[in-house]
Amino acid sequence: MQNTGSGGTPSLKQTNVSTGTQTINNYLLLGEIDIAIGVLLLIMSPFTVIYLPFSIVLVVSGLSLILPHIFKWPLKKKVRNIVLITLLLLNVPFAIAFGKERSRLEQNNKIQLLNERQAKLDEKQRIDDLNSCLQRVDSLYRKGEIDLALLELDKADLMAEKAAEKADVNLIRIEVSLAKTKQLMKKHQYNMAVDLLTSVLELDTSNTLVLYQRANCFVKIKRIEEAVKDAKKAMLLGHSDAGKLYDKINPLKKRIANYCTLCNDGTYSQATGQGACSYHGGVAKWNYPVYEISRKYE
């Protein structure tokens, strides 16, 4: 029988206590490992949100390892090992899928960066080409080669994409088209000039220079009513010579509107018999014409 003598072997009671302490220590150690792994999984979860299923699995796995120890749910070592292995194995396919998703996103980012870089290069090239084209237009315009300048402007139209660029091209086109109009008018090609100016007015319906020039062309081909409309619009918009043209092609005309009786004090009366103008000094003139002033085209 065992005793507790100083030279003897440990008693059964002491052995059981020692074994229990060791078991508790092992359990505590396993618990620390579970908690450490669980915390690590929770920390990793926010970094995997690009593949949400994997992030969710990490959170569930981490909580599954931590919560039993927080609420002191008793788990046997075998059960604990099974749970741990199951959770770790469950994460494997999601981890693989996450890796593929990250690779796909990285590849997409690289492609996007390359596309953005190429787009910037293309945009720079487009702007350079547009500026070069407009420089050629200016050079041809100064040389009087108007037709070639208009052809270059057609190319510039295709290159211009932004609103400000299109506005600049349109302004240049109006100026060059007015120069072309003068050439056509010198050759008495007024119908062609009207067509050209009409197309230009689609770019700027209130351009007084174009309206005035088209009015002059309309006059040449005897389309007076249309000339009057253009001249009047240009005049109202402030063109200095449009008013003179308007008065010339649509002058004021004086005509007799009716007849009345003129009294001696300068007033008029519709009375034609005895007693007319009796309160106005008497009749100065019978059948006095009353005039009105008007224009043919209003």
Explain what this protein looks like in three dimensions:
The protein has 298 residues and is mainly α. 68% of the residues lie in helices and 9% in strands. The chain is elongated.
Q: Span from first to last CA?
A: 139 Å
What strand line-up does the widest sheet have?
2-1-3
Largest sheet: 3 strands, antiparallel
Relative strand content: 5-15%
Mean pLDDT: 84
Beta-strand segment tally: 3
Tell me the radius of gyration: 50 Å
The helical percent reads 55-70%
How would you classify the quaternary structure?
Answer: single chain
Approximate shape: elongated
Structural class: mainly alpha
Which runs of at least 5 residues are low in confidence (pLDDT < 50)? 1-7, 11-29
Order of helices and strands: HHHHHHHHHEEE
Descriptors:
single chain, 298 residues, mainly alpha, three-stranded antiparallel beta sheet, 9 helices, 3 strands, 68% helix, 9% strand, elongated, disordered N terminus
Summarize the entry for a quick read:
This protein is mainly α and 298 residues long. The chain contains 9 helices and 3 strands.
Strand and helix layout:
Blueprint: H1 12-44, H2 52-70, H3 77-143, H4 146-159, H5 163-186, H6 190-201, H7 208-220, H8 224-236, H9 242-249, E1 252-263, E2 268-269, E3 283-295
Antiparallel strand pairs: 1-2, 1-3
